[in-house]
Design goal:
This protein is mainly alpha-helical. The protein is built from 14 helices and 4 strands.
């Protein structure tokens, strides 16, 4: 394959989002430049340097034909805003619920009054009640970080979104299980938004990406089913302690639905992404409201399925 073929192939990938007639016009014009250079005896490398990089060609095409001709760029814009906006909304909801509503301490403690009377006091308190109002402000910081890429100029979006996603990741790691772990869905949505923004403006998403998304969606379910079919002892089984791990009756149809949706996502069905995102969102809402023992794990799973489903739904081709 010649340098000319490589160059034209790279340009075609960069122009994938442009309307077909404009893409054909650009490629035909480039082929004409190469033909003229060959007739003049100029080397291919020289004409490539004169034309510029494939990205520069794509940028000039946008300027020439206008933003309305670049369907892929508009698609990348809308998809990114959906995912980044979801990251902001999820961060706000989680911050408010965790700080003001979700109990952080449960149980009773013994207290002794001035007259020597010993009583028990319920210590079920929220983070704000335990630590003060400043915790609520801290809980909203992830939402502000996720919001920054949405208000900066478009030309700075990639760099700003990268920094914001990295900062959110660091905050989640530093915060740990006490607070940071609750914002893992925001971290996942921010990284997904960045990847979608970059890929849709470039070569897009193919079969490999869909398969990866389907596998990631199915992995948690397969992890739960492994002890069931492997006969591993489970401490939290439905039966007596030490019996084989069992699942509740409601879990079977739920896990089956997740596996089916994972397969449909790998195939490329857009509606499967919306359904998986809806299930993930329901799990998030249930975990935040219930405050159960494994609420954090449910939040992580809900965030994972929300991210995968939403990312697939806004990037998949328009099919059933």
């Amino acid at each position: 394959m010649t340098t000319e073929d490589d160059y034209l192939r790279s340009v075609e990938r960069m122009l994938r989002g442009i309307a077909p007639e404009h893409r054909t016009a650009v490629l035909d014009d480039l082929r004409g430049h190469f033909a003229d250079a060959e007739d003049a005896g100029r080397p291919v490398d020289e004409i490539v340097r004169g034309l510029g990089t494939p990205q520069e060609i794509a940028d000039r095409a946008v300027e020439e034909f206008g933003a309305d001709a670049v369907a892929g760029d508009g698609r990348a814009e809308s998809a990114w805003r959906v995912l980044q906006g979801a990251a902001v909304v999820v961060a706000v909801v989680i911050g408010v619920v965790v700080a003001f509503m979700m109990p952080s301490y449960t149980g009773f403690v013994d207290t002794v009054s001035s007259d020597g009377t010993r009583t028990q006091v319920d210590t079920t308190q929220t983070l704000v009640e335990v630590n003060g109002l400043w915790v609520a402000l801290i809980a909203l910081v992830p939402a502000l970080v996720a919001l920054v890429p949405m208000v900066v100029p478009r030309r700075a979006r990639t760099a700003t979104a990268s920094v914001a996603a990295a900062v959110l990741t660091l905050m989640a790691l530093v915060g740990g299980f006490s607070l940071g772990g609750f914002f893992l869905p925001t971290v996942m949505l921010s990284w997904a938004a960045l990847i979608v923004w970059v890929r849709l403006r470039g070569s897009g998403f193919g079969l490999t990406w869909r398969i990866v998304g389907g596998v990631l969606a199915a992995l948690p379910v397969l992890g739960f089913l492994l002890p069931v079919f492997g006969g591993m002892p489970g401490r939290y089984a439905d039966g007596a302690a030490g019996s084989d791990f069992q699942l509740s009756a409601w879990a079977w149809p739920f896990f089956a639905a997740i596996l089916v949706l994972a397969v449909l996502i790998a195939i490329g069905y857009r509606s499967a992404g919306w359904l998986l995102a809806a299930l993930g969102l329901l799990m998030l809402a249930w975990a935040l409201v219930s405050g159960e023992l494994f609420a954090l794990l449910v939040i992580w799973l809900g965030g994972l399925w929300l991210t995968i489903g939403l990312a697939h739904a806004v990037t998949a081709s328009r099919r059933p």
